[in-house]
Amino acid sequence: MRLITHNMLKCHVKNCTDPNKQFPLRFKDVQLEQIDAERNDEFLVRMLPRLDWPALLTTSKELGYSLPQSVPENPVDNDEFLQALHAFILETHVKEGCMVCNGCSHEYKITNGIPNMLLAEHEI
């Protein structure tokens, strides 16, 4: 699972204790892998408004990566920023582990890079 996907996932458990803690899901016992991907600056710049930057920062710190504290004013002209963003959201993959909700502690397993977001009937 690419980290760009993680930035768009949240907990959907019916009785989650605090909706403000449903996002971002935190990682637990993850195995990461770097997979080269072609860089597309136009795509990265178009995705920026859709990304939750504070959540992305939280995730990067959790995984031991370093991203700038804020998006530069003109990211299209900032090659260093675009390379760091590309490497983190498109080349960093979670192969195994789980994501945990900060509100209800529900665990979403990740197997072979695929997150299982299905809930049991009593959780819907």
UniProtKB/TrEMBL annotation:
Single annotated GO MF: protein heterodimerization activity
GO BP, sorted A to Z: rRNA (guanine-N7)-methylation; tRNA methylation
Listed Pfam families: Trm112p
Cited InterPro entries: Trm112, Trm112-like
The organism's place on the tree of life at top rank: Eukaryota
Family: Belongs to the TRM112 family.
Protein name as it appears in the record: Trm112p-domain-containing protein
Organism annotation: Coemansia erecta
Lineage, opening ranks: Eukaryota, Fungi, Fungi incertae sedis, Zoopagomycota, Kickxellomycotina
